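Page 37, continued from 36.
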């Protein structure tokens, strides 16, 4: 039924002309997510969209990955250092988490002593209403944290406790790391808009909030972090997907690899002298 629907949408549309493969794939993504939630809730026995064949968008429609370089990410972290959500912005930059995953992160998902977190839920907007959902991959994953991020999170938690005391009985405790002053979830759209305002004020090159995720992945790959590790941190379906997404980084990695191997065997494979007699 789904395959027939996708074919009809591409050929006839829904009354306003045929739809592009990219649009039909968005429809498939929505259906897949709805059925996945139904399976999680015990309403449906399985996600039949797993076996459907949505159209593949043409390569020309693929959006070019945009990211900051290391100097720009430092400039950003300096610009947000004294803001209320400084720890949250650093978390976004240093983990590559999706917007909904950041906003859905709970203190119960953090192990600050072990310096790691678990991505178990996301906060998303549906018809502008904020709801809790599962991560995009529907699977929990563990992300290790650097020391400075952990220390900022500890400080952020102390500030949050002060806000709880100030609000008293009016405080709504959702256990969220990224929350408004009264404890309620931050709207995803508002979070993105705040990010845009911060960039304008600081005079930093404008990128989307989601491009912080691309920045983390690109810098990690350039630093020599194995593709499999980057893929796990981002929650990608496979390292192959990560390689395809960040193919622009690979040429530089290959050059470094070639130089490293040549240096390793330098002097060990000199041609041996042979006699002509």
């Amino acid at each position: 039924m789904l395959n027939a629907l996708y074919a009809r949408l591409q050929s006839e549309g829904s009354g306003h002309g045929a739809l592009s493969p990219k649009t039909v794939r968005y429809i498939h993504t929505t259906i897949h997510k709805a059925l996945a939630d139904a399976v999680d809730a015990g309403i449906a026995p399985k996600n039949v969209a797993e076996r459907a064949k949505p159209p593949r968008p043409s390569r020309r429609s693929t959006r070019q990955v945009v990211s900051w370089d290391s100097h720009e990410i430092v400039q950003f972290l300096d610009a947000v250092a004294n803001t209320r959500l400084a720890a949250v912005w650093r978390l976004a930059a240093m983990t590559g988490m999706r917007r909904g995953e950041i906003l859905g992160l709970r203190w119960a998902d953090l192990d600050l002593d072990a310096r790691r977190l678990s991505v178990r839920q996301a906060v998303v907007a549906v018809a502008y209403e904020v709801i809790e959902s599962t991560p995009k991959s529907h699977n929990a994953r563990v992300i290790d944290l650097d020391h400075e991020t952990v220390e900022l999170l500890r400080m952020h938690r102390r500030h949050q406790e002060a806000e709880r005391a100030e609000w008293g009985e009016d405080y709504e405790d959702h256990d969220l790391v990224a929350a408004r002053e009264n404890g309620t979830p931050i709207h995803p759209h508002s979070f993105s808009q705040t990010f845009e305002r911060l960039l304008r004020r600081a005079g930093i090159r404008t990128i989307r909030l989601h491009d912080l995720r691309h920045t983390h992945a690109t810098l990690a790959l350039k630093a020599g972090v194995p593709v499999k590790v980057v893929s796990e941190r981002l929650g990608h379906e496979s390292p192959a997907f990560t390689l395809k997404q960040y193919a622009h980084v690979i040429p530089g990695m290959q050059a470094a690899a070639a130089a490293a191997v040549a240096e390793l065997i330098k002097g060990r494979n000199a041609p041996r002298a042979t006699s002509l007699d």
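DSSP finds eleven helices and five strands in the chain. Flag for discussion at group meeting. The radius of gyration is 23 Å.
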